Amino acid sequence: MTEPEDYDDYRETDVLVVGSGIAGCAAALAAARDGADVTVATKATRPEGASSWWAQGGIAVARDDPEQFKRDILTASDDTADPGAVDVLVENADEAVRDVLVDTLDVGFDTESDGEWDFGREAAHDEARILHVDASTGKHVHVPFLNHLDDREDVEILDDTAALDLITREGRVHGALLERDGEVVPTYAGATVLATGGIGDCYPRSTNPDGSTGDGVAMAALAGADVADMEYVQFHPTVYPGNDEAADGDEGPFLVSEAVRGEGAVLRNGRGERFMPDYHEDAELAPRDVVARAVQEQREATGEVVLDVSPLDFTGDFPDLAEKCVDRGVDWGEGIPVAPAEHFLCGGVAVDDRGRASLDRLYAVGECSRTGVHGANRLASTSLLEGLVWGLRAGEDAAGWDPEVVEAPELLNRDPDLPDNFAREKFVRLRRVMDEYVGLRRDPDDLRRAQGVLRRLKGEVDAYVRTRTSRSLYELRNASVTALLVTRAAAENGESVGTHNLVDAAETTAD
């Protein structure tokens, strides 16, 4: 440990928000509105580096039937969501959306010819209740949100800045060590809000942006905070997987919004057969975990699955997606090839209805948090809403404390260099294990094997962390910690439910 006065420089702020997606932006806005000076630290390079920017479908609202919205969330979760948390989400949904997205940011949600909002419908929703901007809602919310915060004198945004560790003392969080351009600076805060997004870098195929290494979950867990529901990793069923043999311009995977199926697109296997009615009465609009496993099974059995968009006006309804298909050399007229890909962590840092974690003055919001809203499986288009609602509640609660300068972990003057390809090779190993053993279908024996491999990997990474300080090394540490938490939780849960699908349990049920 190093005394604060030994540092050449350190920062102080009332509220430190780590992450700049909708949850982090909402927390920053609410804290600033409540009189706090706020620092937002994000390793993203704006705007594409945050998960919220990539969100396609939209944001769900309660409209005039909140009780049905609650039932849909609970049903999608296999009745594992926390009813109290669902109440918080639904009861605050419309007000939060109108206050922030409509009145403050003036987001131009799509409308009908009469000027009324054009509500979309997605899987497992009983009615059309999704506000959207084409199939690119995230960037139309995220960019104006960042611009609005930029214009406030009480909010400072530090981009290309990574949080390496939380600063803790006697069960209280006092901020974080921030790294930018190789320089590590302690930043002390009255309260710290983690809004670091997902864990996509733990898997070889993900809809998350690069750098989604589970930073918030890992830092909180290493500091002693409670985590929960880590086994519940949602895979999106319709992701264009990329094609190594495609023409120039194919830049790899991209998500095909669930809204496309909501408008009538259907899934067909390699024999041209529509198969989802055989899996669920809601067919293509079944919960995501059901559709994802069906798509994977049909790909294995028939060689491919395509999303047939011929039943709808694809270019008219989804011009952004149609343009993306053209850019990647995908002939959507023949059907869009799709496969499941890691999409969303339903668990995370355990928090209450104000985003408070088990450590004093630590908050977590958005995908890195476990509010209880999603349970074992998330309902489509509730991620932006959860981030908005909990971000506002956490930010308001986090305001009001003064920063206290305490001892901070010693990370200065260490060797920043790693052996060539060290992080890359370890990530390849980590992702292979997660893909083979901790994916859509899981075998208890495989989960035990995965734990052994991941423990050894973490040990190798920890040996370097003790003597080196670099962003890539800490991202690798965070990913290995997060992967181990996911695998351990999966091994300890013997119930096949939602996104946690055990092979033995599934075979027994089928018999």
Polypeptide structure, described:
The protein has 511 residues and is of the alpha/beta class. Helices cover 37% and strands 17% of the residues. The chain contains 15 helices and 18 strands. The protein has helices at residues 22-33, 51-54, 66-76, 83-104, 137-150, 215-223, 258-262, 288-302, 314-317, 319-327, 383-398, 422-437, 444-465, 471-492, 503-510, and strands spanning 11-18, 38-41, 59-60, 130-131, 155-158, 162-169, 172-180, 183-194, 227-228, 233-240, 254-255, 266-269, 305-308, 336-337, 339-345, 348-350, 362-364, 369-370. It is globular, with a radius of gyration of 22 Å. The N and C termini lie far apart (58 Å).
- Cα gyration radius (Å): 22 Å
Strand content: 15-25%
Q: What class, by secondary structure content?
A: alpha/beta
Percentage of residues in helical conformation: 25-40%
Q: Indicate the mean pLDDT.
A: 91
The total beta strand count reads 18
Brief overview, please?
With 511 residues, the protein is of the alpha/beta class. The protein is built from 15 helices and 18 strands.
Any descriptors?
single chain, 511 residues, alpha/beta, seven-stranded mixed β-sheet, 15 helices, 18 strands
Layout of helices and strands, plus pairs?
Layout: E1 11-18, H1 22-33, E2 38-41, H2 51-54, E3 59-60, H3 66-76, H4 83-104, E4 130-131, H5 137-150, E5 155-158, E6 162-169, E7 172-180, E8 183-194, H6 215-223, E9 227-228, E10 233-240, E11 254-255, H7 258-262, E12 266-269, H8 288-302, E13 305-308, H9 314-317, H10 319-327, E14 336-337, E15 339-345, E16 348-350, E17 362-364, E18 369-370, H11 383-398, H12 422-437, H13 444-465, H14 471-492, H15 503-510
Parallel strand pairs: 1-2, 1-8, 2-5, 8-17, 16-18
Antiparallel strand pairs: 3-4, 6-7, 7-8, 9-16, 10-11, 10-15, 12-13, 13-14
Helix pairs in contact: 1-5, 1-11, 3-4, 4-11, 6-14, 12-13, 12-14, 13-14
